[in-house]
Amino acid sequence: MEIWGKLLGVLLTIDNASLITGPRDAVVSSIEHVAAPITETSSDRLPVLLWHGMGDSYESASMQWVSDTLQKEHPDLDIYSIYIDRDGGKDKEASILGDAMTQLTDVCEQIQNIEFDPKQGFNAIGFSQGGLFLRALVQTCDVRFHNLISFGSPQNGISDLPPCQPGNIFCERRNALIKSRIYTDYIQNNIIQAQYFRDVNDYGTYLEKSAFLKYVNNELFKDLKYYDRFVSLNKFVMVMFDKDEMLVPKESAWFYDEDQETGDLISFNKTDSYTFDLIGLKSLHDDGKIDFLKIDDLHLKISEKDLIYIAKTYL
Description:
Palm_thioest; palmitoyl-(protein) hydrolase activity; signal; AB_hydrolase_fold; 13% strand
């Protein structure tokens, strides 16, 4: 289909800008409340799951850099990079093409075959859409998770494509065409990014047609198993990039919402998800189990210092 080609083209253009770029001088700073380093109760650290972002793969140089950096701080750390396909090229393709719910089921089976203590479980770090998928994995997979860290992740979906440069009429028309087809069955069943597209201006269609996000956000109905697994977390850490040019709105990384009438941002603790505790955000927040962190840089511009901070504080 022609629209598939256009959508895939724009997504492949996006992915070239979305990979982790390695050491820089950006600094993580905590927002709202400072997270104290976790006191270790055992000499053995929990294994860590990593889930890469769109257009990346589990064995890429960027993910290897993440793993190496974490192990600089904790040399004994066991790290597992989640994959959809062992072939790196196919794994990258699967970050764009496929069905998110099916992928979650496959990953759940994958990690259940890893040797780990079922009473302790895993810590997990996700990058961009990988952070959203890890949060969904916490909810859908009967495996224990301790701390979950998401970097620049569309936790409350995306409401627009990355903006065009001023005056780029072709880009604007292309984006308008893509958005007009985003809730068709074909796109929802085959394009990963469309499955977390959440159009607040067409919310009814979103609730009717969304193939993924409405379920893991408990917007259609409240799945108590999803809720119970999520609130069992020790920490949910959401990192936002203050100059994020890819995530629209960037505040989705902190689970903000948008007003359907005005388009204004709705802060985390004023959203319906929080107010009605749909997935357990209010319960976790009331217990001091949610940390908001910010990096003053572009999307996924993560420094070694940032990752060392995460390793010291949460792993």
